[in-house]
Amino acid sequence: MNKITFSTFLTSNTDLDETMIAELMRHCRTLFFKKGDFLLRQGDTCHASFFVEKGLVRQYGIDNEGKEHILQFAPEGWIVTDRDSLYNKTPAAYFIQAIEDTSIFLIEEELVSKLTKSHSNFTTFNDTLLHNHIRQLTKRIYQLLSASAEDRYLSFIKTYPDILLRVPQTMVASYLGITPESLSRVRKSLSGKNFKK
Amino acid sequence: MNKITFSTFLTSNTDLDETMIAELMRHCRTLFFKKGDFLLRQGDTCHASFFVEKGLVRQYGIDNEGKEHILQFAPEGWIVTDRDSLYNKTPAAYFIQAIEDTSIFLIEEELVSKLTKSHSNFTTFNDTLLHNHIRQLTKRIYQLLSASAEDRYLSFIKTYPDILLRVPQTMVASYLGITPESLSRVRKSLSGKNFKK
Description:
The structure is a homodimer of 197-residue chains. Chain A has 197 residues and is an alpha+beta fold. Chain A is built from eight helices and eight strands, in the order ααββββββαββααααα. Chain A has helices at 6-13, 18-27, 83-88, 109-118, 120-146, 149-159, 169-176, 180-196; strands spanning 29-33, 38-40, 48-54, 57-62, 68-74, 79-80, 95-98, 102-108.
């Protein structure tokens, strides 16, 4: 997957003007994380949003038995953060980790806070991000409640078309809330259906 | 459960001053819904947030096989709306329905929009609502991925301590994403544990 810069993302997806985008770019910086590095650890306070320019990260939690559960993947062009920790300055409930060597455009919350106070179009951009997040989360809950393992897998491919070959099957199963064995069955069943076509 | 007025809720839970609360109260109105009435139907555009003064509502969807899946209950003191439909003026993906005779304090989005433009403390209030919503949704996803049926049920009781006797078991099972038979087993197992104490 090609690198996506934050300025390209903003130009394509928002109404922010060039001056505002230039100001954002001037105040932010790009950080590099090796595969396995943590952008945020559970228990730390989150101070920034992370825009993925190149690479792949995941947000996940670990249960009492040491099992990992993946809330979200974020490939190129996605923003990931711990909204609760960021807003309420509370310890993060989940980890955010690079699962490939990853280049992150770091957007400090302090800057976001300053810009939303002074620029109404930036406030609109931030509001849109919050509402998009709520829509995605609600959709994910509804799917976990209602969809079969097969439908969840098909929806996963639609949401993340480029990452299926970039993550281990155990992580896909963790995201879908099914066992790796169920995932194997789903994949076999679907490849059988394609074969019959 | 006793009636909770929106002004009491705002006084207890926000930093909004009396003048602001009075202005809100002056521009809003209370509506009454009979048990079974819809506050919002799937496909309609949502124009307001609903504060439950007295009664109980649910937000739910119906899958292709006609089965209902409950995203949320909202008893006294809760706010429920379709954020995506409200913000993007798109057709609502889910239903919001009274499951008891319910008194709703209706907060029109047009008013919220006006107040957030002119009063920074109202903007903060609205931002807090959005972030609380994101926290609750994320927690619910994590729980659906990681928790046993028993733990989900215990968490349900904690989230909604007053409504267990007010909703049919089929709705509780639908909210938890388990079958009514599994819910019966969980309840039996838990009552067994209590008996042994």
